[in-house]
Amino acid sequence: MITALIVATVLAAPAISDTTQMRTQERQRLDQFHVSAGRAVLQAMSGGTLGDVDLLQEALSGSPLPAFGTSLAGQWDCRTIKLGGLTPLTVYAPFKCEITPDGTAFNFVKSTGSQRGIGRITLQDGAIIYLGVGHVADADPMLYSDLPPEDFGDGIYQPQVGIVEQTSLNTARIMFPAPVNESLFDLLYLTRVNN
């Protein structure tokens, strides 16, 4: 159910059907997940405003469903929450995200806002992993497999890696350790859009 991801966006993003292997730099970021999260949460909780801390707590609440028990496909409102780094805690307004299945895994698109992204959600080593590329709104989307081997991000494109957890039918989160820009840890909080 979770093995490959096809991206569909209003702006004709490229299809994601490759079986790209994770690059070393993203593997290293995942290996430091708990260190990155711990430092970031301490900064966010000690320096964030009350309303933002409440939303962070909501986003981090709930145990993840088993990997094969997820129902990620659909339209989602998604809020970026940046923890630590330049500011203790920054919460953005909701934007639009879509997750679509291709029969073996999922494609992910964040299609609105000044920072967007496309990628694949797959099952790797018992965890649901997102590999993708964030980009500024006026840049063409880029596949993860098209990143140069030594590319660490340039402000227009940023390699992304995260752990995906669905916590209920209508809530999920993607957690990004050591993102390329600004923060120590990013969280994309997803709430399902009921059509």
Which key terms come to mind for this protein?
single chain; 195 residues; alpha+beta; 8-stranded antiparallel beta barrel; 3 helices; globular; disordered N terminus
Nutshell version of this structure?
With 195 residues, the chain is of the alpha+beta class.
Low-confidence stretches: 1-18
Percent helix:
10-25%
Please state roughly what percent of the residues sit in beta strands, choosing from under 5%, 5-15%, 15-25%, 25-35%, 35-45% or over 45%: 35-45%
Q: What is the count of β-strands? A: 9
Structure class:
alpha+beta
The average pLDDT is 87
Strand order of the largest sheet: 1-3-4-5-6-7-8-9
Total helices: the number is 3
Q: SSE string, helix = H, strand = E?
A: HHHEEEEEEEEE
* Structural shape: globular
Describe this structure in words.
43% of the residues are buried. The chain has 3 helices and 9 strands. With 195 residues, it is an alpha+beta fold. An 8-stranded antiparallel barrel has the order 1-3-4-5-6-7-8-9. 17% of the residues lie in helices and 37% in strands. The radius of gyration is 15 Å and the shape is globular. The protein has one domain.
